[in-house]
Every structure is written in structure tokens, then in C-alpha cells.
Design goal:
This protein is mainly alpha-helical. It is built from 3 helices and 2 strands, in the order H-E-E-H-H. A two-stranded antiparallel ribbon has the order 1-2. Strand 1 and strand 2 form a beta hairpin. It is globular, with a radius of gyration of 15 Å. The termini are far apart.
Amino acid sequence: MNPRKFQRKRGTCMHMCSVHEYSKRLEQDIYSTFETDNGKFLHHLAVKEYQRASADQEESQPEDLRPSINSFKTVQYLFIDLLQRYEQNFDELYNFMWNR
């Protein structure tokens, strides 16, 4: 057994959504109104979508993973900033948060 295979990766993405995912979602026009300002999809508002691990999926690269401090800030953004700003749209916001 190779111990290097099981080394923990350290995330380097300091955004809520990696550049790779943001570019892909922008190109495919896949984003939520909660990630836009005046209808424009903005990187600083984009939040990484949850993806279930599968055998055919490529291994995540450090630049696609958030470090723990940034993961914490993302959770704060979702549960404090967005909830306070959009509490009247709770059903829509819940659906957005469900896959983040």
C-alpha cells in the first residue's frame, strides 16, 4: 500500500467557487439568481455546487478545493448574508443552498 496515495490534499481556492467551475457554469449558463447582480453571473457571488463522488470522476485538484477557513466563510455567507437578504424567498433559497 502506498501511503502517498492517502495523503490529505490542501485546498488553495480562496473563492466560494473555483475558477474552473465558475468558467464552466458561465459557459453553460448554469447559475442561480442568488449568484448574480443585475442579471450578471459574478465570480465573487458564485458558490461551488455539491457533486457526489463517483468512480468515473477525476480527482479534485487543490485549486478546486477550499481551505477550511474559506469553507467556514462560505457557510457564514450562505447562512448569515443570504438568509438575511432573501428570507422572503426562503423556498427558493433553500433549493439553492441544498446543493451547495
